[in-house]
Write a structure and sequence with these properties.
It is a single chain. With about 150 residues, the protein is α/β, with parallel strands linked by helices. It has a single domain, classed as SPOUT methyltransferase, trefoil knot domain (Alpha/beta knot, 3-Layer(aba) Sandwich). It is built from 5 helices and 7 strands, in the order βαβαβαβββαβα. A 7-stranded parallel beta sheet has the order 3-2-1-6-4-7-5. It starts with a strand and ends in a 7-residue tail after the last helix.
């Protein structure tokens, strides 16, 4: 599995996602610009000593990522999506794409990929969207569950 963070802004969120990726042997892709320096102490603290156990890649921008990786199945997780993330069948080589904490994913990208735009259901319309690292964990673990948690202990 792959998690893609497009222009993440908050170091502890990215650190937590890195820790999640280390625990699940998921590849992490960070798309610039980042809202922090990669040597940020909060980033290291949140990811603890897991960074050395994560396969991760840094990309200058979305086009750089797209042209070099040529990802297969992309799933864009963002509020307002036409389907709930539990309604699709995930595969081991899928890419779960999450946007910036304050702005989400670009609307153009979502509209161009409407059939791959997923949402996490929210029950209180007055609540803000869920934390990025929590959202990544929900969707990743559903994908891993669908695959029988292969390789897990």
């Amino acid at each position: 599995m792959h998690i893609v963070l497009v222009e993440p802004e908050i170091p502890p969120n990215t650190g937590n996602v890195a820790r999640l990726c280390a625990a699940t042997q998921t590849v992490l892709h960070l798309i610039e610009p980042l809202g922090f320096k990669l040597d940020d102490t909060q980033l290291k603290r949140a990811g603890m000593d897991y960074w050395e156990h994560v396969e991760w890649h840094r990309w200058h921008h979305w086009t750089d990522f797209w042209e070099k990786v040529r990802p297969g199945n992309l799933w864009f997780i963002e509020s307002g999506g036409p389907r709930v993330y539990t309604e699709v069948k995930f595969a081991a080589d899928d890419f779960l794409v999450f946007g910036r904490e304050t702005a989400g994913l670009p609307k153009k990208l979502l509209e161009e990929n409407r059939q791959r735009w997923l949402r996490i259901p929210m029950f209180n319309p007055n609540a803000r969207p869920l934390n990025l690292s929590n959202s990544a964990a929900f969707v990743l673990f559903e994908a891993l569950r669908q695959q029988g948690f292969k390789g897990g202990t």
